[in-house]
Amino acid sequence: MDIRALTQSYAVSPQVAPEDFATIRAAGFVTVINNRPDAEIPPHLHTDPMRQAAEAAGLTYIVNPVIGGAITEDNVATQRQTIEQSPGPVFAYCASGNRSSVVWALAHAGKVPADELIGTAARFGYSLEWLRPTLEQQD
After folding, report:
1. CA 51 to CA 132: how far, in whole Å?
2. Is 0.90 surpassed by the pTM of this model?
3. pLDDT in tens, 41-93
4. How far apart are the C-alpha atoms of 120 and 127, rounded to whole Å?
5. What are the boundaries of each domain within the chain?
6. 129 Cβ partners below 8 Å, 6+ apart?
7. CA distances from 33 to 113, 134, 138 (A)
8. Which GO terms of the molecular function aspect are on file (predicted)?
9. Architecture of domain 4-138
10. Does residue 68 contact residue 40 with C-beta atoms inside 8 Å?
């Protein structure tokens, strides 16, 4: 498992396994956001078994499937609302962590400068430069 803390209260990761949730909880996270659609993963990583494992570890589990190249306003709103309402740090995962970084940046557009959002993601290998026009529109 590769936890990449974009901020003190939000981290992203490539796909995790059900047995990883105890470690995620021990690392201080209280909420998990699954940004992967079930259609792109094997059945043992689908929403239901992952939710059961996360909740058994004492985590709140939110499903917000993001389709690459087709991020919706609902995806951004769900990510933003979950981050804002979580009583503690949020852990989000997808295939590589990139989509979880993109929706995080879009959720903070207009509140955090575009350069900071892009730079934060870049430190972890996520190139969000292509989002600059959208992020700057919100500045």
Report:
1. 34
2. yes
3. 999 999 999 999 999 999 999 999 999 788 999 999 999 999 999 999 999 99
4. 10
5. 4-138
6. 118
7. 24, 23, 24
8. hydrolase activity
9. Alpha-Beta Complex (3.90)
10. no
